[in-house]
Specification:
18% of the residues lie in helices and 45% in strands. The strands form three sheets. Strands 4, 5, 6, 7, 9, 11 and 13 form a seven-stranded mixed beta sheet that branches. Strands 1-2-3-10 form a four-stranded mixed beta sheet, with no helix packed on it. It is of the alpha+beta class and 174 residues long. The protein starts with a strand and ends with a helix. The protein folds into two domains: 34 residues; 129 residues, Nucleoside Triphosphate Pyrophosphohydrolase.
């Protein structure tokens, strides 16, 4: 199959998120514009307590306008290692520190987002302090059983479902 060829790119929006309008020459020769969200990537972790409770951050998400029970995670800072970012985000969002961390996978998050998310499993997490949330983060740390976390994934009440399922499988919990 012929590849698509990028022919032009224009930044159309920049804030904490950037949006580019990208024109591609399609395999049939036609040109088509796509709006692509540009991301530096992110890191998330399936965080487990010593008794295998899943640490989630429950928060409102403005797109679907609903509460979600999410794995801790967020943006990778410039030149930051994804594993370091996952550990940092876990501590910032929940106050928990992992005993050990294992890499699971790196995935494209969406067909219209340019950026990779890196997923990890954090084992033996211990509470070491209070969450240190960003100005736009309002939520609650919760501990879910493995079945309750899987049900939240099935019910569409968590983001990063693919990364979460891979992490559960990696940890032997699925």
């Amino acid at each position: 199959m012929k590849k698509w060829q990028e022919t032009s790119r224009k930044q159309v929006y920049k804030s904490w998120r950037t949006m580019d309008n990208v024109t591609f020459k399609m395999p049939d020769g036609n040109r088509k514009d796509f709006d692509i969200s540009i991301s530096g990537g992110g890191a998330g972790t399936l965080a487990l307590t010593p008794d295998n409770k899943v640490i989630v951050f429950e928060q409102f998400r403005p797109g679907p306008q609903e509460m979600f029970s999410e794995m801790p995670g967020g943006a990778i800072d410039p030149n930051e290692d994804p594993k370091v970012a996952a550990i940092r985000e876990l501590q910032e969002e929940t106050g928990y520190k992992p005993g050990r961390v294992e890499f699971v996978a790196s995935l494209s998050r969406d067909a219209y987002i340019q950026g990779t998310w890196h997923y990890f499993v954090s084992y033996d997490c211990e509470l070491v302090g209070k969450p240190r949330l960003d100005d736009n983060e309002f939520g609650e740390v919760k501990l879910l059983s493995i079945p309750d976390f899987i049900q939240a994934l099935k019910d569409g009440k968590s983001t990063d479902t693919g990364g979460a399922m891979l992490a559960l499988h990696h940890a032997g919990l699925l």
